[in-house]
Amino acid sequence: MAPTLPRPQRVDVQIAVGSLLCGLALWALGLESQSDRPLGTHWALVPLLVLAGLELLRSSRPQFALVVATFALVADQFTAGNLASILMFTDIMYAAVVYGTPAAARRIPITTGLITVALTIAFLAWWQDPQAVLLGVATAIVAFTPAATGVLVRNHREATAAAKLRAEQTALLAEMDRVQAVSAERARMARELHDMVAGHLSAIAIHSTAALSLDDPATSRDALAVIRENSVEGLAEMRRLIGILRDQSGDLEPAAAPTLEGLTALLDGFRTNGLDVALDDARTPAGPKLPAPVELAAYRIVQESLTNALKHASPGTVTVAIEQLPHALTVRVSSPYGDRSGPRAPGSGAGLVGMRERTELLGGAFESGPESSPDGKVWNVCATLPVDPADEGAKE
User: Which three-class secondary structure state does DSSP give residue 188?
Assistant: First the structure.
């Protein structure tokens, strides 16, 4: 099956038709581009028609059109000639550089330049007349100039396309960064919401269950007092978080991030909720002030571990130990592990996920699970948070 020629573009058809009509008008008026040629005036129509047909292929088959157009232009030199034929050849030369392959776009200007110089030197040597330079100029106008113009146009188009591609890539990367930033912010808000409110809600659930299950007015009053205290504190935490999200709460002062200095108050709050918790003072850090992200992560990990212990731990003492090493801060919370006879608050498993995420965001290591100890089986939560000594020095 013979290959079909590509369909010409609309602009190519317009150029071909317009050039052909102009050439026929010049031929009808007897305006010849050269005289004293072997072939008669009517023969000039043949290159004219061929070049007009090649104009239809200037965009789709530019290199093929240039090769055939070169032979047509050479044949036109043996006829009376037509100015439209020369102009169509220059357009085909230009199109071959603009629409051709990158290799052709590099090769054609060099070739036409060498041909121009070679013809100029050859005619000077043959005629021994400075007028031969005019022939070189004419060759440059017909061949080299449109090729050089095509190079400039092609380079401009490629630069524009490259700039557009870079702009699209930049926009895509910006959108990806925006999506990642939104996802990271949502995850951060989820962790903060869980860590701030989960402890209060767990205490409310446990004490309300106890009040409902025990028919003792004194116990019920104590449980209701704890429930009210945790409800007020949880509501305050929620309001602060909503104010941060909306930035319209009227509290223009940013809420201070919790630090390890507030650890004692945190433990006292859990003791109020009925949790037996002890702080290992021998391992509490007393060195240089830690970076704020490390302190916040350590505080939240302790807070969530105690919340889990309040919901799930067996009767016994929960131990909190924080040790500052030369290049890391270690947080360890141990709680009795086993069957629990009292009321139990439901859990979603988000607490362990949040603690692991906080640790990994700082490049640390997180472990949790049951272990054996001299006092029986315990559930250990251990987080190692790296500390850059340079950051410590900056905080002093």
Answer: helix
